[in-house]
Design a protein that fits this description.
The protein is globular, with a radius of gyration of 23 Å. It is an all-alpha fold and about 450 residues long. The two termini are about 25 Å apart. The chain has one domain. The model has no long low-confidence stretch (mean pLDDT about 90). The chain has 20 helices and no strands.
């Protein structure tokens, strides 16, 4: 009863909740130490290289990198940092992306389930701390999700011009992360089995593909103008495939395969282009998979586990634990490592850290479990509705692509946001009926 009252209160005071949410984000961005590590630092460094050379990404100096990564995202960073060269600029941009993503998933939920479910979605989204923590990083996930959900939003309108625009946003997502191809596959599969006339099938599919091709050609030519190569997306597929296909593969990120005497080792890598390295790593990965097909497949469950078993890819940053997360802490405890747990932090802060992570993971697993229950109970209704099938297809195809490489907690971010769309009507119906109702009821706008 108390939970229902709390949910009703939050849903009826959405504007106040959103105001508090944006103030918290602005405070974090302006008053936190926005130092970058790992991928965040790498993206920032690439943008700084281009700013120094007065060019866009990739620049000629990046020809001998291991791969080209997220060209659209890096070029957006270059434009932003040319205005004001500071991590604060990226943080403020992340706040904008965060609210744009929230608006898009609200609108999609509204289209599917009505206004009440949309308001419930906003509450679910705001209390998902991984998104809040993500604004303090320099990751591709927020921009990728905005582009993916923009594409879906326009696709759901089912007009000729919106299908074309949907294709443009789809291609833009691929220019950030190649996993966007999963959404294109979902679109084409849906249209193929829609039962529509052959003429309408070619028209709708053609509009989506035409929009995608237009952006790919224009962006590829733009990159050709300063890099002398037609490139429109990341080229790190071979390196990621090899990480998930070698004798030391664990299902998670493990770069041992690139050490000397391992199959991914390349002597004098600085003398080889990203094309040469990628070709070599792809050949090595294919060779290993061909020789070890059962072992490769046996790693799939581990990749799923690494994606979904924990969800602290950004929450620790909210407490300024920049080098720690739940996975590392638990591994430290289990292995009995001598590394000092959480550094010299005050004891009360360590306690608060664990309490926050426990509460967050209870919240995260509640979303996942509710989603699975909703799919099981409403499967027939969902299977009959092409709009619902679109989201499930995207999730299945996207996760399948990840299974080919390796699992990482960040990779599930688009899927956990998608799960919220399915969970929102359950929360709304339960607050109205004052009891948990997992079966969808007809909800009108």
């Amino acid at each position: 009863m108390k939970l229902e009252k709390a949910l009703n209160f939050l849903q009826s005071h959405i504007k106040i909740l959103l105001t508090i949410y944006i103030l918290i984000q602005i405070s974090y961005v302006l008053f936190s130490n926005l130092s970058y590590h790992s991928d965040s630092l790498y993206y920032f460094t690439l943008a700084q290289d281009c700013l120094r050379l007065h060019t866009f990404y990739p620049a000629p100096v990046h020809l001998y990198q291991d791969y080209i990564t997220a060209p659209l995202y890096i070029n957006v960073l270059i434009i932003l940092l040319s205005i004001y060269n500071s991590p604060v600029t990226i943080g403020l941009f992340n706040i904008f992306l965060n609210f744009l993503q929230l608006w898009l998933v609200y609108k999609i939920t509204y289209i599917l389930f009505g206004k009440g479910a949309g308001r419930s979605l906003i509450v679910i989204y705001i209390f998902y701390l991984s998104t809040l923590g993500m604004i303090l990083f320099n990751f591709t996930e927020l921009l990728f999700n905005v582009l993916i959900f923009s594409s879906v939003y326009f696709y759901l309108q089912k007009r000729n011009y919106t299908l074309f625009v949907s294709g443009i946003f789809l291609a833009m997502s691929v220019a950030v992360r190649p996993i966007g191809w999963a959404l294109l596959a979902a679109y084409l599969i849906l249209e193929l089995f829609s039962g529509d006339t052959l003429k309408n099938l070619f028209t709708k599919s053609g509009l989506i593909v035409s929009g995608a091709l237009l952006f790919i050609i224009l962006f590829g030519l733009f990159n050709y103008s300063h890099f002398n190569k037609f490139i429109f997306t990341s080229t790190n597929g071979p390196v990621n495939l090899l990480i998930g296909a070698n004798d030391d593969a664990t299902g998670a990120y493990n770069d041992k395969v690139f050490e000397k005497a391992k199959i991914g080792y390349i002597p004098n890598p600085e003398s080889r282009t990203y094309i040469e390295k990628g070709g070599y790593w792809l050949k090595q990965a294919y060779s290993w998979i061909y020789s070890h097909p059962l072992k490769y497949i046996s790693l799939f469950p581990l990749k799923i586990i690494h994606m979904f078993i924990w969800d602290d890819f950004s929450v620790s940053r909210l407490l300024s634990f920049t080098d720690w997360n739940l996975y590392r802490v638990m591994k430290n405890i289990i292995t009995g490592s001598d590394e000092q747990l959480l550094g010299n932090r005050p004891f009360l802060m360590k306690i608060f850290y664990f309490i926050l992570l426990i509460l967050h993971h209870l919240y995260y697993f509640s979303i996942v479990i509710l989603f699975l229950l909703v799919i099981k109970i409403n499967f027939r209704n969902i299977a009959r509705n092409s709009k619902f099938r679109l989201f499930l297809l995207f999730m299945v195809l996207g996760i399948t692509i990840h299974l080919l490489t390796f699992g990482d907690a960040r990779y599930k971010y688009p899927y956990i946001i998608t799960m919220m769309i399915f969970v929102a009507p359950v929360i709304y119906q339960s607050t109205v009926s004052k009891k948990l109702i997992l079966k969808y009821k007809p909800i009108t706008n």
